[in-house]
Amino acid sequence: MNNVSRIICLFVLGGFAVAADFARPANAAQENQAVQVIEVTAKKYEYSPSPIRVKLGAKVQLKITSLDRTHGFKLNLYPDGAEAKGDPGLIFSSTEDCFTIETGTPTVVEFVAHTAGTYSFHCCNRCGLGHGGMKGQLIVEP
Ligand SMILES: [Cu+2]
Known about the structure:
Elements: H1 3-30, E1 35-43, E2 46-48, E3 52-55, E4 59-66, E5 71-75, E6 90-92, E7 99-101, E8 107-113, E9 117-122, E10 135-141
Parallel strand pairs: 1-4, 3-10
Antiparallel strand pairs: 1-2, 4-8, 5-7, 5-9, 6-8, 9-10
Bound molecules: copper (II) ion (CU).
The site of copper (II) ion (CU) has 6 residues, from loops.
């Protein structure tokens, strides 16, 4: 092989490698992207982690478990400061309004992060004196 054909050969192989790299995320997007699974814990009177960070466009599964008693989880459909009308910023797989969070068994909250922004959530199951302050935020990063 002379030098010229060697260089051409490298270009061709390099081209394939680049094409393969581009093909991967495109296919993933077509399949409605990989599920981003995040383990969340709830206890008097906080959630962890908070804020929860997810990627715009991701299909998200929050697996929420309580560490002490039964709590709740209610996540806003619209970003903070946005008007609650039109297409919601988070598209949920279930119509559950208030998810019950038990000890031992994780509750799965699934949605697609459709619009970037900060979404508030709070405990919707009266759990004690600090219940009203049991809040957190989900950030959908562009
Ligand atoms: Cu609570």
